[in-house]
Amino acid sequence: MLRYITFLLCVALLSLESTPSQAQTDDKQSTVLLQLGYAFQLPAADLASRYGSNFALSGGTQYLWPSNFMVGVEYQFLFGSQVKIDVLASLRGPEGLIIGRDMQFASVFLRERGYTLKASAGYLLAGPSEKARQGLLLQFGLGYLTHRIRIVDDFDSVTQLSGDLIKGYDRKSGGLALSQYIGYLYLDRDRLLNFHAGIELTEGFTKSVRKFNYDTQMPDTDRRFDLLLGAKVGFIIPIGKNERVIYY
Fold first, then answer.
1. In this predicted model, what pLDDT tens digit does every residue of 87-107 receive, in sequence order?
2. What is the distance between the alpha carbons of residues 55 and 183, in angstroms, rounded to a whole number?
3. How far is CA 90 from CA 87, 95, 173, 213, 215, in A?
4. SS3 sequence of the chain
5. How many CB atoms lie within 10 A of CB 82?
6. Counting beta carbons within 10 angstroms of the beta carbon of residue 111, is it exposed (0 to 12), middle (13 to 18) or buried (19 or more)?
7. Ramachandran category for residue 150: left, alpha or beta (phi over 0 → left; psi -120 to 50 → alpha)
8. pLDDT tops 90 at residue 21
């Protein structure tokens, strides 16, 4: 009998000393995630006829439930230097330069600018881990996309580009946007390293918000289908306890 009791005590002690690899974790707390991200994006469909590749800075917040469902909002600022159409061609002389009001050659450049603002919902396919809450993250977003050609007149010397006149050249467009994201999310239990990285696709159903294009002398009424495919990484600040219960 004594040997039997001793054997049961030994088994109980060994089970308490099980390694983390034999454990499963269940998060008990919801967590607010503050995020700052950066992306490299390639345009497609109608957007590719207007711009080349661009970069994006993003900021947002997400709410992650213990069930691994997630909702949030995000703002993403788009910027690039590759503009494929010359909206100022009608202002250029034979040498391809623009003469300012001071009768000197103007210094004018074209840049891409835009943003997306969206709400998102997703799910974290998390596996058991003692050190981190991590796994495959799937997200879907709904919001607004806008983009325009930023015309930079270094010396403000071109009369045709002064004040509101510049809006007749900037091709500003906007409309409904959808997005899909798949990536890897890592939330450290000790809060030392928290990040996500993945691929995002954005579809924009846009149209011009300007009534008239001065360079073509025509209204722009075409509906556009804009695509952005980007590689995205973000750093996260979690707010709230990241506790867990361990089952053996």
1. 999 999 988 899 999 888 999
2. 18
3. 8, 12, 21, 12, 6
4. CHHHHHHHHHHHHHHHCCCHHHCEEEECCCEEEEEEEEEEEEEEEHHHHCECCEEEEEEEEEEECCCCEEEEEEEEEEEECCECCCCCHHHCCCCCCCECCCCCECCEEEEEEEEEEEEEEEEEEECCCCCEEEEEEEEEEEEEEEEEEEEEECCCCCHHHCHHHHHHCCCCEEEEEEEEEEEEEEEECCCCCEEEEEEEEEEEEEEECCCCECCCCECCCCEEEEEEEEEEEEEEEEECCCCEEEEC
5. 13
6. middle
7. beta
8. no
Q: Which two tokens stand for residue 94?
A: 């034979």
Neighbouring-strand partners of residue 246: 25
> Which pTM does this prediction carry?
0.83
Is 14's pLDDT higher than 70? no
What is the per-residue pLDDT across 24-79, written as a single tens digit (0 to 9) for each? Answer: 444 557 899 999 999 999 999 999 999 999 999 999 999 999 999 999 999 999 99
Structure tokens at 50: 């207007």
pLDDT per residue over 165-222, tens digit each? Answer: 999 999 999 999 999 999 999 999 877 899 999 999 999 999 999 989 999 999 999 9
